[in-house]
Amino acid sequence: MSAPLAFVACSAISALHPGDLSTAVPCKEAAAFAMAELPERATNAKCESYSVMDRSYRGTWQMPRADVDAWITRYFPDREPSPATYTPCGADLCVRVQRDPMAQTTKGAYDIGVDIHFEPDGTALVDYSSTDF
């Protein structure tokens, strides 16, 4: 019975915003959903939230390449241990985090992806996504 209800909810929302269920949000909010902070020296940050019944965020920003390792280590110590455990993302650095939704320490996102492309100018382009479903 819940499937028809979900369809009705999605249909009603789609009618209000044809083809797009996303809303621009501050990247600080998007990062906080993954229990992280936006990198201190992030620039060109653009993020959005999209959801019907669950919450999801996605965004991009640039940051100094020299700051990447410290940022990843600080906020994603629970990342997948080896890039061999998942399909390559096509970026220079792929970070995947799967958090237990039932754990008391999990607040916000259960599934987090951070794909980082290193640029020749010494910056890193970050492509971030997180969701609680």
Report on this structure.
The protein has 133 residues and is of the alpha+beta class. It has helices spanning 2-16, 27-33, 68-75; strands at 22-25, 43-50, 56-64, 93-98, 111-118, 123-131. A 6-stranded antiparallel β-sheet has the order 1-2-3-6-5-4, covered by helices on one side. β2 and β3 (56-64) form a beta hairpin. The two termini are 20 Å apart.
Kindly estimate the percentage of residues that lie in beta strands according to DSSP: 25-35%
Count of strand segments:
6
Helix content: 10-25%
Radius of gyration: 16 Å
Number of helices: 3
In terms of per-residue confidence, which ranges show pLDDT below 50 for 5 or more consecutive residues? 1-19
First CA to last CA: what distance? Answer: 20 Å
Keywords summarizing the entry:
133 residues, alpha+beta, 6 strands, 23% helix, 33% strand, globular, disordered N terminus
Question: Could you write a compact summary of the structure shown?
Answer:
The chain is of the alpha+beta class and 133 residues long. The protein is 23% helix and 33% strand. The chain has a 6-stranded antiparallel β-sheet, with helices on one face.
